[in-house]
Amino acid sequence: MELPVPVADHGLLDRRAFLTGAIHVAGLVAVGSHAGDLVATAQAAESMTLETPPWMQGPGQPFRGYGQPAKYEEEVKRTFFQPYKDIAPGSGASMTPLHQLQGTITPNGLHFERHHSGVPDIDPAQHALLIHGLVRRPLHFSVEALLRYPTISRICFVECSGNSFFNVAAEPPQKSCGAIHGLVSCSEWTGVSLAVVLEEAGVDPQGKWLVAEGADAAAMNRSIPLVKALDDAMIALYQNGERLRPEQGYPMRLLLPGWEGNTSIKWLRRLTITEGPVYSREETSKYTDLMPDGKARQFTFPMAVKSVITHPSAGMRMQGKGLYEVSGLAWSGAGRVTKVEVSADGGKSWAEAALQAPILPLALTRFRLPWNWDGSPVLLQSRATDEKGNVQTTREQWTAQYSAGNVYHYNAMQTWSVSPAGEIKNVYL
Predict the structure, then answer these.
(1) Which of the ends of the chain has fewer CB neighbours closer than 10 A, N or C?
(2) Whole-model pTM above 0.90?
(3) DSSP H helical segments within 182-275, as ranges?
(4) Is residue 215 helix, strand or coil?
(5) Which residues contact 47 (CB under 8 A, 6 or more apart)?
(6) For domain 124-173+187-292, which architecture applies?
(7) CA atoms within 13 A on the CB side of 251
(8) CATH 3.90.420.10 in the chain, residues?
(9) Using one digit for the tens of pLDDT, what is the confidence trace for 177-225?
(10) CATH says 306-427 is which class?
């Protein structure tokens, strides 16, 4: 098979090669996570012996009330980060295994979690949402009452502002893609427009902010500009078609598309309309950006444009020379992703990847690019651009913006090194 001429160094091919038939899909090599993985190759039908496997020789399992993943997929699970496990087992995070998933929608059971004091067990019959402060009419919504309101749905990502913080370390951590970048997930959320219930309460003209508070033991709270609340904010009640799970804020949570995940308060119990921010613990001692001059930048809500190659990535192993598909995810808190470029030489040359439709604003976008690896050492990177013209930064550029102690809003390009032996590692450039 004669392959198209590369469009960038080290074998990156034209993004349209698969669509135009310039590449036969049967020649594609699968990247496995273990050195002993076999390469799947097409075989002629006449050389195969079709036998009846054991699972065809008797009835299968009966119905279940709630479906579960196949037992053979038990390795597809979240990675935990619990720095205070012994004294606060409910504090920490779990990361979505991005490298083990495809598409753009995250299964509910694999959506990342970030908790400050565990997951509360809330009886929806006893839970309610209070809206008060600078309003003409304070309101008290039961869960049942909110479920009767007209609903809206939208697909969007939620990303912790501390996502990818492991790459701030002096030495590159040798973790999987999900263990480094997995504090981001994407779902279809359904609920009630926050603007609708605020309109019923009648916001006083002096009210410019609101304070959202959760019903967990930490009483998590954040100050939110009212302009965002009246724009695209939602009181989410459903995730991917089913009621919210407890770890995602059951029975209701705030959802602020494109903004740092900590502001999408889970287990929502109170919204207080105020003249300005209250400078709570979570927006002073935490979730601020430390600057080189010793000051801290506050209220940097939108998440920056970002991308990461998920296949191949650290911990996987190339299965010999040949044709591969480079695939990954891109997103931006400013809107739609308009372009993703891939480099195999550490940013010296770039090839534009194909973006998988639909390309939605404030949602994960899957990108793909054919790659003919010749067995030489390479440095794989991806670089995303959004509809506002924002371009993903290099690690050197990102580091220069902040002090050494900052761990928030990391959106620098990820570099995976591939050795001639096929070993893939996390490296810094």
Answers:
(1) N
(2) yes
(3) 194-201, 226-229
(4) coil
(5) none
(6) Alpha-Beta Complex (3.90)
(7) 16
(8) 124-173+187-292
(9) 999 999 999 999 999 999 999 999 999 999 999 999 999 999 999 999 9
(10) mainly beta
